[in-house]
Specification:
The complex is a heterodimer of chains A (578) and B (371).
Chain A lengths: L2 H31 L1 H12 E6 L6 E2 L5 E14 L6 H12 L3 H8 L5 E8 L1 H10 L4 E10 L7 H4 L11 H5 L1 H4 L4 E6 L13 E3 L6 E4 L3 H17 L4 E7 L6 E7 L12 H4 L3 H12 L2 H4 L9 H10 L8 E4 L2 E4 L2 E4 L7 E4 H7 L2 H22 L26 H8 L8 H12 L10 E5 L6 E3 L11 H16 L14 E8 L8 E9 L6 E8 L7 H19 L6 H7 L1
Parallel strand pairs in A: 2-8
Antiparallel strand pairs in A: 1-6, 2-3, 3-4, 3-5, 6-7, 8-15, 9-10, 9-19, 11-14, 12-13, 15-16, 17-18, 18-19
Helix pairs in contact in A: 1-2, 3-4, 9-19, 13-15, 13-18, 14-18, 15-16
Chain B lengths: L1 H7 L9 H30 L4 H22 L8 H24 L7 E3 L2 E3 L1 H20 L6 H21 L1 H18 L3 H21 L3 H10 L8 H13 L24 H34 L3 H25 L17 H19 L4
Antiparallel strand pairs in B: 1-2
Classes of the chains: A alpha+beta (578), B mainly alpha (371).
Chain lengths: 578, 371
């Protein structure tokens, strides 16, 4: 072979080697510099993490009645690479799931590993789809939250979202106990997404959520809800709220806000509302889910006189038999503030003033106590703080700044105007006033129990002991008992039972629109209260006096609730009052 | 060099290039191992046992071994006559036309015809006969080749077969162009002109790929953005495999990507699985084996008894070299994707048969080297 040929062929071979060098350099780049990147991507491709959902814990009432539980539902998804007849998949799924073909087509023809078509599919439909044995269509078991009592205590319980997470109410407050821990299976799959048998597999078992036992009582809840619905209808009111709790330990028996909503369809809006924009719709929903008992404040009106009276007695500024005179108004600085009875109550003792709910008496007491004394008592009765209830979104009170409180503000405050608190705050303060002076924490959660029943966590709630003196509390009980037995709360009197209480009629802001909140707070037994309730009728039409329309509602409830809760008739008190 | 060897050793000693033989045997066995590794899972899924593809390849290798041994014992000069060279070339053209007719009958592009149950790819066989033809023509006319046109005339001979192949498979045609180009380039004295022609042809090809709107342009798009292009999946899968191999790989048989992620894992894409299982180390070793093989063939070409033998070795060497380069470059996404098997390793009966036959002929050339 000629030398020139040899040179040329050597050149060609060196050119090859140069080419090999280039691809080797490229290999080095991919396999060293980009190795991590591709290794991660490849792992994502090969590993299939299958979530094993944990069943959410049940919620029970105080008697062990299930008020929230789970039901098996199915989620339908498609695996792109395993589908053999995509058209058939689209046809059958759209037929069985009643979804538009177009919507399903989008997901079926999307080149991704797995697409979820629909979750929360009922067992019937899921079984049907299973029977078709379609390649690449997966039917996975899932859980759906169900509320057997539909709307009962809806604003207390709340509901869960698509991932079984709590959204509002107890469901969100106790989410960490209820939700459990989902397990997972990590497997390797081949190119068609079929799991490789015998390949390395990791498995974490799911841990079921803990069951929550609450202080709610389904029967009482049912009953107060019906009572609220009845009065709402009668008085064409906007809303009626009611709370029933144990003033000794803060356990809430029932809490209703009528209208309630169906927990199994929490996102449903009326036709008219569902046509609004999405932002507006969300507002409607938030409004619908709102728990007025603690998410909103109002002017408590005369029920607040419990606080003023407590302040006066606690600071020894007034005695039960002190004499007052009510001409139907009181001049405070340059203003004439009227009593609800414009002709005046005339001469009366403090006790009679409480029974008459006489504004001038309380303005006088408020003035005697002074701003410091009032604010100190507010603080002791927990009116500057949230109650600490185990529900989300509690509102705080709205009070004048102490330095801005002059005689007029002090006077209006004394009978529950120009301040705003939540009904629950009022109930808590009243509890302390009559239970011997202990500031309790209202609550629902009693304990959680693990799904196997082995682990139990009992919740404890703070109680501030002796925020007021026992004697003050005792006097308060007497006074409030008198309100029901002989005073403005007569409409809540039940033969044989000793009941204490206080009425209120608050004019809503802005004044002069004729909108009122009528309310009544009552408790029993008068001398040893173990149940206390408050009822608020928002914007009643027609008669709006709390004593006339709210007190009978409480009477209705107590007629059933007191025997139900094992509170015995109290003949001695009955005789005394006769 | 040959003279020195001749002086040092006694003349007329029987020679066979054992290093080359060893490299070839190593590559064939390595290929079998890798085909088993890459195809066993898919074979089990599809046929219930892991041996489907490795058995078929094994049969091809055994037949190939007969060809290789036979051709290495047959004096290569037997091919150096008009009847064999031109006749063989004519037969390969007829086979290619037959494929076209079969394809037309089946209403689709077909690259193989069936003989006795075995599928067989005429375009692969055509490579051997093209090399023999060109070696024959070039060695015959070497002394007469003065002008550029002489080179073009010889090239003209190869155009029918390249055109027929190009009709079915452009990348194989490109490989054949390269083989013909290299062989003519070595013999023709018009070095500069031929380099200019080669460079301008590459330029035209690049321009064509860049500006044409055909489906090949799509391949450029895949090459540039494999991660976003809808048809870039295979390229990305190959890169996943290569990248996840790292320096020493996952170990033989441990590839995940062969589990149906790479569609042609035992075929054109086998190199990516080699990278995944044996790592950069294994891949570089394989490339070094190919370099060694090419080097041995270069030495045989340089020391061949006559120009015909040298040109045979050069043609077959170019065949191996260009395919190795294109295959690895495609798998690593260095160039736009095209389907070229990796010689000795990729699954494919005709391919391994043809390559083994070529190696037999080169070994036969090595036998005539005078010591």
């Amino acid at each position: 072979m000629k030398t020139i040929y040899k040179k040329k062929i050597l050149g060609i071979v060196l050119l090859f080697f140069l080419g090999f060098g280039i691809v080797t350099a490229r290999l080095g780049y991919v396999m060293i510099v980009q190795a991590d990147k591709y290794l991660t991507l490849a792992k994502e491709l090969h590993q299939r993490e299958r979530e094993i959902k944990a069943p959410r814990g049940n919620i029970y009432d105080r008697n062990g009645v299930k008020i929230a539980s789970n039901k098996a539902v199915y989620s339908i998804s498609v695996i792109y690479s395993q589908m053999t007849d995509k058209k058939k998949v689209v046809d059958i799924l759209s037929q069985e799931l009643e979804i538009d073909k177009e919507e399903i087509e989008k997901k079926v023809y999307k080149n991704s590993v797995r697409e979820k078509i629909k979750s929360n599919v009922e067992k019937n439909a899921a079984d049907k789809i299973r029977k078709y044995k379609l390649d690449g269509v997966k039917v996975d078991e899932d859980y759906k939250r169900v509320y057997p009592y539909d709307s009962l205590a809806s604003k207390v319980l709340g509901f869960t979202g698509g991932d079984n997470q709590g959204i509002v109410g107890l469901e969100v407050a106790y989410d960490k106990y209820l939700k459990g821990k989902s397990g997972r299976i990590l497997t390797l799959t081949d190119g068609k997404g079929i799991e490789i048998e015998g390949a390395y597999e990791e498995r974490d078992e799911p841990v079921a959520g803990n069951d929550l036992y609450t202080s709610l009582d389904v029967n009482l809840q049912n009953y107060i809800t019906q009572a609220c619905m009845k009065v709402k209808k009668e008085k064409k009111a906007k809303q009626v709220s009611m709370i029933l709790l144990n003033p000794q330990n803060g356990e809430i028996y029932a809490m209703a806000n009528v209208p309630e909503y169906n927990l199994n369809e929490p996102f449903r809006l009326s036709k008219k509302k569902s046509q609004a924009g999405s932002k507006k719709q969300q507002e409607f929903l938030n409004q619908k889910w709102r728990n007025t008992c603690l998410n909103d404040t109002y002017e408590p009106g005369s029920v607040f006189k419990i606080v003023t009276a407590t302040a006066g007695l606690e600071l020894n500024k007034v005695k039960v038999n002190d004499h007052f005179n009510c001409p139907g108004f009181r001049i405070v600085e340059d203003r004439k503030i009227r009593c609800h009875k414009t002709t005046g109550h005339g001469s009366e003792t403090f006790k009679e003033g409480v029974m008459n709910s006489c504004n001038p008496v309380f303005m006088e007491v408020g003035a005697r106590v002074g701003v410091d004394g009032m604010y100190n008592t507010f603080k002791k009765l927990g009116l500057f703080e949230k109650t600490g209830i185990d529900l989300p979104g509690e509102a705080g009170s709205i009070m004048h700044k102490k330095k801005n409180v002059k005689a007029v503000e002090l006077a209006t405050m004394s009978f529950g105007q120009s301040i705003q608190i939540t009904p629950l705050q009022l109930l808590r303060a009243a509890s302390a006033a009559v239970n011997g002076g202990n500031l309790i924490t209202p609550h629902f959660g009693v304990k959680t129990v693990s799904s196997d029943g082995k682990k139990e966590k009992i919740f404890e709630y703070p109680v501030k002991k002796n925020v007021i003196r026992k004697e003050t509390s005792e006097t308060m009980r007497d006074l409030l008992e008198a309100v029901v037995s002989e005073g403005s709360g007569r409409n809540c009197r039940i033969e044989g039972f000793s009941i204490g209480g206080k009425t209120a009629t608050s004019e809503k802001l802005p004044r002069g629109t004729g909108k009122y909140i009528s309310s009544f707070l009552g408790f029993s037994k008068a001398q040893n209260p173990t149940v206390m309730g408050i009822v608020l009728i928002d914007e009643p039409v027609g008669t709006y006096y709390g004593g006339t329309i709210a007190a009978p509602v409480m009477k209705n409830v107590f007629q059933i609730a007191l025997p139900y809760l094992g509170i015995s008739k109290d003949y001695t008190v009955d005789k005394k009052s006769e | 060099m040959a003279n020195r060897i001749k002086e040092k050793y006694m003349p007329k000693k029987k020679y066979l290039d054992y290093p080359m033989l060893f490299l070839v045997i190593f590559l064939i066995f390595f290929g079998m191992v890798m085909i088993f590794s890459t195809s066993s899972y898919k074979s089990t899924v599809n046929f219930g046992h892991p041996y489907h593809w490795v058995l078929r390849q094994g049969i091809s290798v055994i037949i190939g071994a007969f060809f290789m041994i036979g051709l290495s014992k047959l004096d290569y000069r037997w091919f150096n006559n008009k009847i064999i060279a031109i006749g063989g070339y004519g037969v390969s053209i007829l086979l290619l036309i037959a494929v076209l007719i079969v394809g037309a009958a089946k209403k689709g592009a077909v690259r193989w015809i069936s003989i006795g149950g075995f599928q067989f790819q005429p375009s692969e066989v055509a490579k051997i006969f093209l090399v023999i033809l060109l070696a024959y023509l070039l060695s015959l006319n070497a002394h007469k080749m003065q002008h550029f046109m002489d080179a073009v005339k010889i090239l003209g001979w190869s155009i029918p077969v390249i055109a027929l192949v190009a009709y079915q498979n452009l990348s194989t045609a490109l490989v054949m162009c390269a083989i013909a180009g290299v062989m003519i380039f070595v013999v023709s004295p018009k070095t500069k002109e031929l380099i200019a022609v080669a460079v301008s042809m590459v330029g035209v090809l690049v321009l064509y790929l860049t500006f044409s709107n055909s489906y090949r342009n799509e391949r450029v798009a895949i090459w540039k953005h494999p991660e976003t292009h809808e048809k870039g999946l295979q390229t990305m899968q190959a890169l996943y495999a290569i990248g996840s191999g790292g320096i020493f790989g996952k170990g033989l048989g441990q590839s995940m990507q062969k589990m149906g992620f790479i569609p042609e894992s035992h075929n054109d894409m086998i190199f990516s699985i080699i990278c995944e299982e044996l790592g950069l180390f294994g891949a570089v070793c394989l490339i070094l084996v190919f370099i060694a093989l090419i080097w041995r063939m270069l030495l045989i070409a340089m020391n061949a008894e006559d120009l015909f033998g040298a040109l045979l070795a050069i043609g077959f060497m170019t065949h191996i070299g260009i395919q190795v380069f294109i295959n690895i470059a495609v798998v690593t996404n260095t160039i736009p994707p095209t389907g070229i098997p990796l010689p000795f390793i990729s699954y494919g009966g005709t391919s391994i048969l043809v390559v083994m036959a070529e190696m037999g002929i080169v070994l036969s050339v090595s036998r005539r080297i005078r010591m």
